[in-house]
Structure formats: structure tokens, C-alpha cells
Design a protein that fits this description.
heterodimer, A: 387 residues, alpha/beta, Peroxisomal Thiolase, Chain A, domain 1, nine-stranded mixed sheet, B: alpha+beta, three-stranded antiparallel sheet
């Protein structure tokens, strides 16, 4: 039987472009904030799970070499994990596994990026395409997600307004989150419709910003939790699934990898009806339309119903299943930290410490991440009650 | 006081394609879209993969046959804006990016917008093929429409030997 594990401390940096801190300096800020959050010291951390997305973004290969000591990994185990945009989620899950295994008692998960250090994040994202088949015409991440969006909209009779509705919801939510980058007052559907078309059917309004940020979470074994905090977020389940890149009949608008991850996560957390039993959800919406597709993958609604779930208002802050009260990845995307922000936001909601964007009475919250060729998915579900 | 350093990295690469992709690219030179049959589960892939993503079988580079040149448009995007910043001049791209023996194809820079990325399911294939569409076709693209391959005159075993797909 695996050890029960809880999140006891969280440290975030603001998402923005920042020229005051080096890459290790940025990681150190998130690390120190996480320690301060739970009153631990460097020597209390047994091991570090370290994440960062493609090295291209800072042009610094093997960044755990540069940043190890900055996150307290001096003469202690450090493990680098890498799954592209999913990495923050994979790192959090890796840290959870290290504690659940019984081999370590208190483990730091930390992940980040400074996307503004490269002259073009999208050239970097095009190097994610393999050089034999596709890099010749790739236009970064937006061109792939635009192909996903066209399929989704045409398949179910939706149109670009459905993605823009997500953008309006999340941008307004972000006004309540001091860590979000895009905090734009009076953001309206009309304004979103008037932003330039970049990759049809995706407009500028459908896309995330480029941020510099890091995020840290501290996981502790059950027998250590009580001495650290009386307000932990218990890990109810943690699942990662790789969907594969170009298999038979692959449909980018129907993420079967996410569906599998969700079903496993719900089963392990004892959840039968996620729409009713989850109180808040944070999904990795690097592009607006993806939030609708992830609703379906996460079984918040049936396949093809994501647009209608958005129209119903259920996923707004005051709806019955709020999604991305933080503003989501659409309002802050450092890539390296983003999937961990989703998990950390879910944990904060369970702790009741999400600040102005806190949803009242949260007992169970889900955080999601995706990365790679729209293929890697991670899910963590946190609970107020010990499992 | 923080300070910002500007620097640049220039490293030419060469990428090994392996026997399966190598055979596929050789087919393009002969104006053939080769479908590769998984020896284990018999699904036909175009383009191929190194490993059958359905059953994990290893492809045999010789177990392939030409498919037709037509298929269905599964999805697409029209790239309308340059997301990369200013395009370097061709001489700069050649110097920085091209190993000499790969000819003069810009490997890392996409076409100037507008152009389309199309996801085509070739008739007889079980997976999707990502490629290009351009020009007058951009306003005619619709999910589900029929597409046909258009070849370059000069071909040398490279993905862009296939110039584009056009709407039928």
C-alpha cells in the first residue's frame, strides 16, 4: 500500500516578462516562497523533482545543472523530468510518486521557464516537430492547435465564437489572480472578435501570452503532514497518459488519452460523477478552444457537448463546475511552470487559499496539463479530506 | 543591478532518417506515396512511423506499395500571420541551417503566409498526412473535401518533393 501524500506548501512567481532575475534566480524565488509557505527549511527537503520545457527557450541546455543549488538540491537527489508543456504536471506527479513510494518523506517539485529569453518562442516550438515530416512548414504551436480547432468546430457545428467565449471567461477570471499575466479590464466578446486572425480559425484572443515564471509544490508523507500544516491538500489521484502521435484513426478533437487518464483518476479517487463531485477544475488551455475539448476528455460532458457546456455558463466562476477561476494558461503561459500552476491552483482551492478567485466550499479539485504533439496528459485530484 | 546579455547559437545538424523513412522519401522522388503495411496488424500507414503505433510491430521498409494520390481533408489551418518574426535572407538561412549535402531546401523556416497546413487521409491509409496547400486553394478548403497531390518537377527525396495538396 502506497503512503498517503499531501501538498503542504506552494510557491509561485508572477507570470510576466522579467529582466530582474536570472533563470536560477526565478526558480529560487518560487522555491523560497514554497518553503516560507509551510515553514520548512532547505534541510527538510529530501529530494527534488525538477522540470523545465524545451531548452531552446533560454538556449541553456541541461538547466538543472545551472539551477540545482538554487532550489536547494545540494548533496541530495535531483531528478529531471521532461514532457514538454506537460512537464509541470509530470514533475508534480514524479514528486508525489517519490513520497508515495516510501523512499522519501518530503519532496520538492519545481518547474519553470523564461520564454522571453528567446527571440522567437514559436521557432523553438517548431523544432518540436520532427525534422523529417513536418518541420518544413510548422508555424509553432498555434498551427497544430488550429488544425485541432478546425476539426472540432466543423465536426460539432460550433464556430470561433465558442473559443472566444472561453477567452472572455478566463480573461475576466484572471483579473482576480495577481499571478496572471493578461489582466485586461472590460474584456468582451466583441473585442476578442476584432483581434487579428493568426492561424485560422484562431485569433490573437484565442492564444496564451509568453511568460517567465516558476512554480513549486512541496509533497509530504502522511506521518509528516500534521507537524507541517493543519491545512494540507491530500492527493487523491495522480495519472499521466501518453496518447501517441499519429496512430490509426487519431482524432485531435477527441483526446482518448485524456479520457483514459480521467477515468483512471476518477476511479482511484472514488469519483463516479465528476461534474457533480468535483468542485473546481483547472485545465491547460494554452488555446481557448482546447478548454472545450478538455471538458469532454475529462467527462464534464459528453463528446461534442463542450461548446454547449460553455454556453450554459456552468464553467463560469459562479457556475456549478467552475473551470479555470485563475484565468488558466490562456492568461499566463511560461510552458515549463504552466501544468504545475494548474495543479497548484487546484491544491490552493482545496486549502481555501486561492484568494479573490477562491470558489467557496471546495472539497475536491482537479488540475490538468497537456504537452508534446497534443499527446501527453496529466491529471491530479486533490481533496480536503484524507483519503 | 541586473544586466541582459545577447548571444546567438549557430549549429548545423544532420538528421538520420532510418530505413523506413528513407524508403518513404525515396518513393517521393519517384512520385510515389508509399503506404507501409504493419507486418503484425496489417494496418497501412502513409506517412510511415518507425513503430506501428497500434500494435508495436516493426515495419519492414520493403513491405510497402504506392497508394493513390487522392484523399479526404480531415482538417486544416490557414496560417495568416508570421509568428516567427522577420524572415532571415536566404543566404543567412543556407549558411546557418543547411548541411551542404541536403541541397537548398529551407529546413527550419516555413513558407511566407498565407499558406495552409492540411491534414489529409490518403485513400487506403489508416493515419493522417500533414502537408501544405497554397494559392487559390486557400479559400476552397473545407473539412471533408477531396484533395490530390501535386509534385515538384525537380525531386530529390525530401518531404517537399510533394509540392502541395490541391482541392479537387
Amino acid at each position: 500500500m502506497a503512503t498517503k501524500v499531501a501538498v503542504v506548501g506552494i510557491g509561485m512567481t508572477e507570470n510576466k516578462s522579467r529582466w530582474d532575475l536570472s533563470l536560477p534566480g526565478l526558480y529560487r524565488l518560487a522555491y523560497q516562497r514554497a518553503l516560507e509557505d509551510c515553514g520548512l527549511k532547505s534541510e527538510d527537503i529530501d529530494a527534488v523533482a525538477f522540470g523545465h520545457s524545451p531548452e531552446y527557450f533560454e538556449g541553456v541546455n541541461h538547466p538543472e545543472k545551472w539551477c540545482g543549488e538554487a532550489v536547494g538540491a545540494l548533496n541530495k537527489p535531483l531528478f529531471r523530468v521532461h514532457t514538454g508543456g506537460t512537464v509541470g504536471g509530470s514533475v508534480a506527479i514524479a514528486a508525489y510518486y517519490l513520497v508515495a513510494s516510501g523512499k522519501f518523506e518530503v519532496v520538492l517539485a519545481i518547474s519553470g521557464n523564461k520564454l522571453n529569453e528567446t527571440s522567437s518562442a514559436q521557432i523553438g516550438l517548431s523544432t518540436v516537430y520532427d525534422p523529417i515530416m513536418g518541420r518544413q512548414f510548422a508555424a509553432g504551436a498555434p498551427s497544430a492547435v488550429a488544425v485541432q480547432a478546425s476539426k472540432y468546430y466543423s465536426q460539432y457545428g460550433y464556430n470561433e465564437d465558442h473559443g472566444l467565449m472561453v477567452a472572455v471567461k478566463n480573461r475576466n477570471n484572471a483579473l482576480k489572480n495577481p499571478y496572471a499575466q493578461l489582466r485586461i479590464p472590460d474584456y468582451t466578446l466583441e473585442g476578442a472578435r476584432n483581434t487579428p486572425m493568426l492561424c485560422h480559425p484562431l485569433r490573437l484572443a484565442d492564444m496564451c501570452p509568453t511568460s517567465d515564471a516558476a512554480c513549486a509544490m512541496i509533497f509530504a508523507a502522511e506521518h509528516r503532514v500534521e507537524a507541517i500544516t493543519d491545512n494540507p491538500a491530500w492527493v487523491l489521484s495522480a495519472v499521466a497518459v501518453n496518447e501517441g502521435i499519429n496512430y490509426v484513426d487519431r482524432d485531435w478533437s477527441k483526446p482518448i488519452g485524456l479520457r483514459k487518464a480521467a477515468e483512471l483518476a476518477y476511479e482511484r479517487a472514488g469519483i463516479k460523477d465528476p461534474r457533480r463531485e468535483l468542485d473546481v477544475v483547472e485545465v491547460y488551455d494554452a488555446f481557448s478552444v482546447q478548454e472545450l475539448i478538455w471538458y469532454e476528455g475529462l467527462k464534464l460532458c459528453d463528446w461534442g457537448e463542450g461548446g454547449r457546456l460553455m454556453e450554459s455558463g456552468a464553467t463560469r466562476m459562479e457556475g456549478d463546475i467552475p473551470v479555470n477561476p485563475s484565468g488558466g494558461t490562456l492568461c499566463a503561459n511560461s510552458i515549463g511552470a504552466s501544468a504545475m500552476f494548474r495543479k497548484a491552483e487546484a491544491a490552493l482551492q482545496v486549502m481555501g487559499r486561492a484568494g479573490e478567485h477562491q470558489i467557496p466550499g471546495v472539497r475536491r479539485a482537479l488540475g490538468h496539463g497537456w504537452g508534446g504533439g497534443i499527446q501527453f496528459h496529466t491529471i491530479m485530484i486533490f481533496g480536503k479530506d484524507k483519503p | 543591478m541586473s544586466r541582459v546579455l545577447d548571444w546567438d547559437i549557430t549549429v548545423p545538424f544532420r538528421w538520420t532518417c532510418g530505413p523506413v523513412y528513407g524508403r518513404f522519401l525515396g518513393g517521393l522522388k519517384e512520385k510515389q506515396l508509399l503506404g507501409f503495411e504493419c507486418p503484425r496488424c496489417q494496418e497501412v500507414y502513409c506517412p510511415p512511423q518507425d513503430i506501428c503505433p497500434r500494435c508495436g510491430g516493426d515495419f519492414d521498409p520493403e513491405q510497402c506499395r504506392p497508394l493513390g494520390e487522392e484523399g479526404d481533408l480531415v482538417s486544416f489551418t490557414v496560417v495568416e500571420a508570421n509568428l516567427f518574426g522577420p524572415r532571415p535572407d536566404d543566404e543567412y538561412l543556407r549558411r546557418r541551417i543547411h548541411p551542404a549535402d541536403l541541397g537548398e531546401h529551407p529546413l527550419l523556416w516555413p513558407p511566407d503566409p498565407p499558406y495552409a497546413i492540411v491534414m489529409v487521409r490518403l485513400d487506403g491509409a489508416a493515419n493522417n498526412f500533414l502537408h501544405l496547400a497554397r494559392g487559390e486553394d486557400l479559400s476552397r478548403l473545407q473539412v471533408g473535401c477531396r484533395m490530390r497531390a501535386v509534385w515538384k518537377e525537380e525531386r530529390e527525396g525530401f518531404l517537399l518533393d510533394l509540392d502541395r495538396f490541391t482541392v479537387l
